[in-house]
Design goal:
The structure holds 2 protein chains of 2 kinds. In chain A, about 55% of the residues are buried. A 4-stranded mixed beta sheet of chain A has the order 1-2-4-5, sandwiched between helices. Chain A has a two-stranded antiparallel sheet with strand order 6-7. By secondary structure, chain A is of the alpha+beta class. Classes of the chains: A alpha+beta, B alpha/beta.
């Protein structure tokens, strides 16, 4: 086996030939930026602004040691949703903000609070995620420092750049789409994802 | 860690959106594995902006709700497969199909035991049609199984059945099949109607290279 197994390539040999053309989802705008949380010379933060009236659903890891950002998202989705003032999602890659005790929730509050303030959205409608190294306090100020810049370049056509910004050890950005005709118009669905290692999701 | 963000312009209430999402999880993101390690940060957020001109989706049993559920499932499956295709160091995409289990839960346990087995995955990396390691994975899964009822297939080739190597087993054909980059490992337990399909990748030196270096 050792003689025949192959070395990993820069881009997975199983990667799709190209990133798909994603339709614009009215009411969703994306921005990608560089906060230097772990990675240098690339984007590592994604911001999404969602229009007033947006409904949110979620599924999260059942891990007993799940990160502060996961607990925060679950708490925000546990009650009746007030959708009137829109919503936002912010993601950083490079620091998982997991197993950092009280610092974890404080970092989540700083990051989601920064987005809430910049976009005039209630903090309980701002959802965050972090991925990367576990056990290191998240340098939230590096992220909050770029929120204003991100807010200024939100773009309905920015989903592909956002998919790139959330990568960690991924070798390619991931996107998918589906559309169908319904009574009165077309319904579009667009998805982006990251994932390459520590992958055996157990979600609920 | 796996992060997924899905956006739609559908008009739909949060509770119904959540139900439609829940209905697609088991067969998509909960049916993949790269390395058997569940992250502390896996998250999926589904946002429906309501900005389409189409009529609202208000009834789970309606045609629009069913079509939305199907389209959502397609997007989720596509993304789940892409995550496996980017499995660290992966060179082969592997579909594990389990049928004939006593129930669906047992089928899931067997499928994941195979998909998570380092020995099955390194055999696949080495292009070795090692069905014996599949027998091992079935046995350790904890699901109800009977050695003498097992059938193991790689692609459309039956390698083992009735408790021993299949009389039709062709080493050259099996070895040729293993050189493909998309493999199907099929196991029929011969007990009931439980079934499950999961997806994984091979386990190569690349995985160690990446994870031995990925530190703070």
């Amino acid at each position: 086996v050792a003689k025949t197994t192959k070395k990993a390539k820069a881009v997975s040999p199983l990667a799709p030939e190209s990133f798909p053309e994603l339709p614009v989802i009215a009411g969703a705008e994306f921005a990608a930026g560089a906060a230097g949380v772990k990675y240098q010379g690339r984007t590592d933060v994604m911001l999404v602004r969602l229009a007033a009236g947006t409904a949110i659903a979620g599924a999260f890891t059942k891990s007993s040691t799940r990160a502060a950002s996961i607990l925060d998202c679950q708490a925000k989705l546990s009650g009746k949703q007030e959708t009137g003032q829109g919503a936002a999602i912010i993601v950083n890659s490079g620091n998982a903000n997991a197993f950092t005790g009280k610092n974890g929730q404080e970092s989540v509050d700083k990051v989601t609070g920064g987005v809430a303030s910049a976009l005039s959205i209630p903090r309980d409608r701002v959802f965050s995620s972090s991925t990367g190294v576990i056990g290191e306090p998240l340098p939230a100020e590096r992220i909050t420092a770029v929120i204003g810049q991100l807010a200024g370049k939100l773009d309905a056509g920015g989903a592909a750049d956002a998919a790139q910004a959330i990568m960690t050890t991924d070798t390619f950005p991931k996107g998918a789409t589906a559309s169908f005709e319904a009574e009165g118009g077309t319904i579009n669905i667009v998805g982006i994802a990251k994932g390459s290692g520590m992958i055996a999701p157990d979600m609920a | 860690t796996m992060l997924v963000y899905i956006f739609t312009d559908a008009k739909i209430a949060p509770e119904m959106l959540q139900k439609l999402l829940n209905g697609q999880l088991a067969s998509t993101f909960n049916a993949i594995t790269v390395d058997s390690d569940t992250s502390t940060s896996d998250a999926l957020i589904l946002a429906a902006t309501g900005k389409t001109t189409a009529q609202p989706i208000t009834d789970m049993r309606s045609a629009p709700a069913r079509r939305f559920g199907k389209a959502l499932g397609q997007v989720m499956m596509d993304l789940a497969h892409q995550v496996v295709r980017d499995g660290e160091g992966a060179t082969k995409f592997v579909e594990v199909q389990v049928t004939g289990a006593a129930n669906n839960n047992d089928a899931h346990r067997v499928a994941m035991a195979i998909a998570n087995s380092p020995l099955v995955k390194t055999a696949i990396a080495g292009e070795d049609a090692n069905w014996g390691r599949v027998v091992m994975a079935v046995g350790k899964s904890g699901a109800q199984a009977d050695r003498d009822l097992l059938t193991i297939r790689f692609g459309d080739m039956v390698l083992a059945e009735n408790g021993w190597r299949a009389p039709s087993y062709d080493e050259a054909a099996a070895s040729a099949y293993m050189k493909r980059d998309h493999l199907v490992v099929g196991v029929d337990l011969g007990l009931g109607r439980g079934k499950r399909t999961v997806w994984t990748c091979d386990l190569t030196h690349g995985y160690i290279d990446i994870n031995a270096d990925y530190r703070s």
